[in-house]
Amino acid sequence: MTSGDPFDIAPWGIGATGWDPERIARRESVFALSNGHVGWRGSLDEGDPCKVPGAYLNGVHEQHPMPYAEDGYGYPETGETVINVPDGKVIRLLVDDEPFDIRSGTLHEQTQFLDFAAGVLRREVRWTSPTGRGVTVRSTRLISLTHRSLAAIDYEVEATDAHLDVTLLSEIVANEPLPEVHPDERVKKALERPLVPVETFVSGERATLLHRTRRSGISVAVGMDHVVEGRATVDTEVADDVARTTVRARLGRGDGIRIVKYVAHESADALEDATLRDRVEATLAAARELGWEGLVHEQRAYLDRFWAHADVRLDGSPRLQQAARFALFQVLQSAARAEGRPIPGKGLTGPGYEGHTFWDSEAFVLPVLTYTIPDAARDVLRWRHAVLGLARERATQLHLAGAAFPWRTISGRECSGYWPAGTVAFHINADIAAAVVLYVGATGDTDFERDHGLELLVETARLWVTLGRWGADGSFHIDGVTGPDEYSALVDDNVFTNLSAQRNLEAAAAVARRHPDHARRLGVGADEMAEWTRAAVAMTIPYDHERQVHQQSAGFTERERWDFEGTDAAQYPLQDHFPYFDLYRKQVVKQADLVLALQVAHEAFTAEQTARAFAYYEELTVRDSSLSAPAQAVVAARVGHVDLAMDYLTEAATVDLADLRDDVDDGLHIAALAGVWTALTAGFGGMRETDAGLQFTPRLAHPLTGMAFGICLEGRTLRVEVTEEATTYAIDAGPALRIRHFDDDVTLEPGTPVRLETPPLADPGPAPRQPKGRSPHELLAAADGDHEEH
Amino acid sequence: MTSGDPFDIAPWGIGATGWDPERIARRESVFALSNGHVGWRGSLDEGDPCKVPGAYLNGVHEQHPMPYAEDGYGYPETGETVINVPDGKVIRLLVDDEPFDIRSGTLHEQTQFLDFAAGVLRREVRWTSPTGRGVTVRSTRLISLTHRSLAAIDYEVEATDAHLDVTLLSEIVANEPLPEVHPDERVKKALERPLVPVETFVSGERATLLHRTRRSGISVAVGMDHVVEGRATVDTEVADDVARTTVRARLGRGDGIRIVKYVAHESADALEDATLRDRVEATLAAARELGWEGLVHEQRAYLDRFWAHADVRLDGSPRLQQAARFALFQVLQSAARAEGRPIPGKGLTGPGYEGHTFWDSEAFVLPVLTYTIPDAARDVLRWRHAVLGLARERATQLHLAGAAFPWRTISGRECSGYWPAGTVAFHINADIAAAVVLYVGATGDTDFERDHGLELLVETARLWVTLGRWGADGSFHIDGVTGPDEYSALVDDNVFTNLSAQRNLEAAAAVARRHPDHARRLGVGADEMAEWTRAAVAMTIPYDHERQVHQQSAGFTERERWDFEGTDAAQYPLQDHFPYFDLYRKQVVKQADLVLALQVAHEAFTAEQTARAFAYYEELTVRDSSLSAPAQAVVAARVGHVDLAMDYLTEAATVDLADLRDDVDDGLHIAALAGVWTALTAGFGGMRETDAGLQFTPRLAHPLTGMAFGICLEGRTLRVEVTEEATTYAIDAGPALRIRHFDDDVTLEPGTPVRLETPPLADPGPAPRQPKGRSPHELLAAADGDHEEH
Fold it and tell me: Per the database record, which ranges form the Glycoside hydrolase family 65 C-terminal domain (chains A, B) (predicted)?
C-alpha cells in the first residue's frame, strides 16, 4: 500500500521486523489470531510492552448504564461492552533473573509473521540482557479452527551464552488493567475489574480460573496445561486473578527449553460452574492427547481446504495479493467458529466499537462468508434468529409490528445511544433479510430457509408494513429513517432502505409460499402476503427528473451542496468538526448509500441511470467511513471506470495495513476487509446475483494482469480465472450451473472449463470527480504524509 | 378552575387552609415569594414537613459534566443547575421542648394566604402539642421589591395555655438535603452539597455564612439579623453550614413573643469575600433601620403603583379574576428585580428545568413585562446583551456568523443536551430580536436601542444570513431547524422561524439605519444591510396550495397524520410514550407553532388564511406543552371562536393552580402564567402591534361580563375597559396616542376617554375540532379526575 507501510510483503502471510514503540497497538491488531469464538490480539508473549491487551471470548461482555444528558422514550438504558477474558497467552521469561523485555538490553532481531496458510503467528527474537546474557526466543501461537475453545503456544528459549538460568512464567491473567476504558464515570466503574473470581482449580501443570461478570452474569472459565521438553523444574500455582506455571532450567550454550501451552476457554450464561470446568479440562486433555504437531496439522488441513476453494489469486501486484489474502484470512478468523454469536465490527481483534456487531456483519461480511465458508454465514443468521425475541420486544416498544433488530449490540439488545443514527437506521432489518436470501440462494439450504430464514423474513417484513405508509398517490413510503449515509438522517424514502425493504417484502412472500405450513404457524395468511407484495410493488423510489438522477432520499438533490471547496483537509472526518444538523441538511455523503443501492440492487437501475447516479454521488461522497470504498470500487468497475475502481480497492486494502484512519489500534475493520474481496469479485469480476443466476462482467485494471477466485455454490466450487483477454469458468462437481458472462448465458458442466472472451470496454466517458482532497489518491497520499510525520 | 382546586378564591390573593400531605410541594410552589433576584418557596416556617426546600439567588448555580452515550461535535460538555443558597426562611419552634410539627399533636387550623396587593405570604396556625400544650403561630413573610437582596419574616407565637416554654430557632441552613437531585451519577456527585463553607461571621444577633460553589466558583453570602419583642433570652451561634439565633421565652396564657428576622443575600463571581460580607451587613443594618412596618409599607406602595397601571380587572368570574392577578403577580415576582440576570422557566419558584431560562422568557414573559413593568423587560435584554460574547463563541463553533444564543442556560452557555430540540431551535435568536423590537416600540427607549438593542439585532441578523441559503428560485431558505413545535424537528422553512427571522433581519437593517455611527462601529455596512433586506424580502413561507393552508414547515401538510383515534388518553404526553422519530415524521403538533406565528406575525396572514390555518392546526395540536394554550386562546378569539378562546384561557390559568400537568411541585410555569395575561389582552382584548400602532378588537365571552387592563406606552398608561357592547380607551398623560379599534383609527388625548362600540361578530363558522380527548374541556375534566384519585 503506501510507502509508510512497515509490513513485509509475502504471498501467504504478513510479517514485520524490529520494534516500533509508535506501532505497538497496530501490530497487535494486524497480528491478531481468532477463530470467531476465541480471539487473541498479537501482543508479545511476555506481556510487555503492550498497548491494548486483548483476549476475547465472543459474547462475553459487561453491562453498564447508558448516560443521557436528556432522556427520551425508548432510549436504551443498558449498554454492553466487550471485556477481556482471562488472558492465557502470557509467557513471561526471566534470564538470570533479569526480565526479558525488548525495551531493555539489546534487541538484535525480532520478526513476527502471520501465516495465512498455516494459521499461526510466529515470532523469533534474538536478545541480550542488560547484563550481557543472550537468548533466542521462538514462539508459534495458534487459535484452533478445529477445536473451538482451544488456543496453544509453542514456546522455545535457546541459550546463546553458557550457564543461563532461565525461568518461564506461563500465566493466565484476569482483570488486566486497560489503557482507557470509557470517559463516563458510571460506565468506567462498571467496566473496571469486570470479572469477579468464583473459584480456582489446580492439578499438576493444569490450572483453571473461574470468574463471573458482575452485572451481565456471564461465567468464564479459562484453563491451561503444559508440556515441557528439556530438563526443568515445573511448579503451578493459582490465585484469584492469576494462574501461573513456573518452569526453571539451567541451559548451556545452544541448549534449549521448550514448552507447549494449551489454553481452553468456556463461557456460559447459565451453566453450572462444575460443568464449565469439566469442559475446560476435557478440552485440555484432548489437546494434550492430540499434541502440538497434531494441532498444527489439523489447522493447516482446515486452511488447505479453505484456500483450495476460496483463494483469490492476483497477478501483477504482490502487495494487492497479500492484502487480498490478509483480508480474506481475517474475515475467516472473525467468523469461522462464531457459531451462535455475532460478528463484531472489529471481529475479535480489539475493543473498538465496544465489541458491538452492526449492519456491517450482514451487509458486508456475510456475502463473503456465504461464498467462501457458507456455514459461518448460516451461523450468524441463526444467531439473529436466536435473538428474534429481543427484536420483537424492541419493535413493540416502538409501536411497530414484527421485529426491529438492534443497530449495535452484543447480546441482541439495542445499545445505540444516538437514535438518529441508531434506532431509525431500520435498514439493518432488510440487510439481515438480504443476507438470508443470499445465503439460501447460494447454498440451497432449504432446511435453514424453513426453520430460520422464513421467520426472519416474516418478522422483518412485518416491520416494514407498519413502519411505512400508503401515500394518497397509492405509493408506499417509508418516512423518517436513516439510510447507510450517516451524514443524512431522518429522511423520507431513502432509496437503499426502500429497495432493501422491497426485496425483504418480496422474499418474505415468496418464502412463505414455499413453506405454507410453517408460514401458517407464524400466523402468515394470504392477506398478509398480499399486503407485503402490494407494498413492495408500490415502493417509492425518488428520482429527480430534472437532473435525471436518483435521489438518495426524497428531496436530496434539491438540498444545498456542502461547501467542499471551503473545507480543509484537517476538517475531515466532517463529523468531528461540524455539527450534525449542518451535515444533515446538505448534500454531503459520508459513505456509499445510493451507490450501495446501485451495487446490491443493480437490477433496479438501468446502465445509464447507474452511470449517472455514480457520477453524481461521487462528487458528494467524502468517505469518512471505511464502509464506503468497497461499494465505490464495485460500481466504478461496473460502469467502466476500472482505474478508479483500482484506487478504491487500494484504499479498502489500505484501511488496516497502512492504518488509513489512524484507528487500527482498537482492532481491524472486518467489514472493510470483507469489502476487499467484494471489490475484487463483484467489482473487477463483475459478479452479481440475478434472477437467472450469477452474472460476471470481468475486467482487470493496472497493475492486475490476472485474477482467480472461487465461489461456493450449492456444495460445489465455481472457479473464475480472469485475464485481460478472457475469463475461464469451471465447476468441480455437479449438477450443471447456469451463469452469465456479460450478456451471454453459459451452462457449466463439472470438469469442463469454459473460456469466454472479454468484450471491448465501451468508453465510460470522463472519470467522475470526488470532493476536493477526497479522491482515493489524495487520501492515500495524505495518509502517507501522516505516517511520515511519526 | 377545576373542582379539584383546593385554593380559596379571593380577588387580591390566594389562600389555602388545612394541610394535605399530597399537596405540600404544590403549595410550596404556589405560595413562593420572589423579587426576581431572591426567591423563597412557600415552605412552612419550621422547615418540616417540606417536599422541595427552595431558597434561590438568581444566577447562583453549580456546574456538572453533561453525559452522552455517544458524543458529537459541539455537544455542550458542562451543564448548569440552580442550587439552593443558604436558606434563611427557617424558624423552628419548640413548645415545652416539643418540636412544633403540624404532623404531630393536633392541628386546629392552618391558613396560608399570598397577598397580591401587599406582596406578602401570611400564615396562621392553631396547634396543640402531643402533650397538650397550645400555641397560635402567625407569620408574615416578604421578599422585598424595593430592597433587592432582602427578605424578612415577622414571626409571632402566642400561648393558648399557661406557663409555656417556647424556644425559637431562627436559622440559615446551607446544603440542605434535596429530594432527588439527578439520575446521573456524575451530575449527582457534582450537585451534592454544592456549597463549600468559606467563612462565618457572628456579631450579636447578626450572623452571616459565606460559601463558594465547588465548580462554578460563585461566592454566596447570606446573613440574618433579628429584632425580638417580648421577654426572652437570645443567643446566636454559627457553624459551617448553619447560623442559628435561639430565642427562649416563658409565656403565660395569651402572652406572645414576636421576632422580626431580616435576611440579606449577596452573590458574586469575582468580588472579595469581605466586600460580599460588607454588603450583607449594610443591607441588614438598613433593614433594621427601616423596620418591619417600613418594609411592609414600601412593599405595598410598590405594588400599589404596579397594580394601578397593570391590573387586569375581570367581571363575571371571581376564579378567573384571581387567576389573572395570580398570574400577573407571579410574572412580576419572576422579573421585578432580576436586573442583569435571566428569567428561568420556573422563575425562582422551584428547581424545575434545572433553573434554566429558555425562549419562554423572550417570547412569552417579556411581552407582558414590556407592557406592565418595562424596566424589567429591558433588564432581561441587557442580560442577553451581556452574554453576547458567549453567543458569538457558540456561533463560531457552529461555523455561523453573528451570535447563536443558547436554548437553555443560566450563565449564557448552551446547556442543551439534546440538539434536535436545542441547538437547532435557532428561533430563540429571533425571539430575542422580537423582544427588543417590542420593548423599544412600546417604550421609545432609544438609549437602549442604540446601546444594546442594535447589537443584539445585528448579531442575530448575521446568524440568519449564514444559517439560511439562497435557493435556485431566488428565495431564501432556512433548512434543518426546529421550530416551537417539539414534535417536529430538523425541518426546512419553519414558518414561525422564517417569519421571525424576516422581522429580525428587517429590524436590524432599520435600527442600523437609525444609528449609523454605532452600526458602523459594529462593522455594519450598506452591503450587509442590503443583504439582510434581500434575505427578508425573499424569505420562504411554505403554503399548501391544494389544501389552501400554510405549512408549519416545508412539506408538513403532506406528512402522515398522527393516529389520534388510536391514541389513548394515558399515552399523553406523547413524548413519554412514543419515540421521537415517529412523532417527527407525522402531522402532530405538541404546541402552537404555526398558530403562534398567526398570533405574533398576524400581518403576514389574511383573515381567511388565519381562520383556515387555525382550524387546520387545531386538529393536530395535542398541547403536551403549557406554552400552547395561550396562543390558541389568542388566535381563537381573533377568528371569533370566543368560547373556545375562553376554554384555552381557562386551561392556561389552570396549569399551575389546578396542577394540570402534575408538575407544579418543581415550580410554576412562568411563561404559561404570562400567557394568561396575553390571552386576555391579545385574545379577548384583540390587542396587537401594527405599523400604525396598537390595534384592539375586544370581544368578551361567557362568563366574562367586563374586563379592564392597563398598558404602559412610552411612559404613559393606556387603560382599556371592555364591556360586551363597547370599549373605553383612556390615556393618563401626553402626548396623544393613535390606536385602532377594529378598523377605526382613533387618537387618544390625555384625560379624554373614548368609548367605541363593538361591531357585531361575523359568524366564524363551526368551531374547529381538537384531537380526540385533547380539547381543553376534556383535558380539564381529565385533570379533575386525576386529582380526585389522590
Answer: 687-748
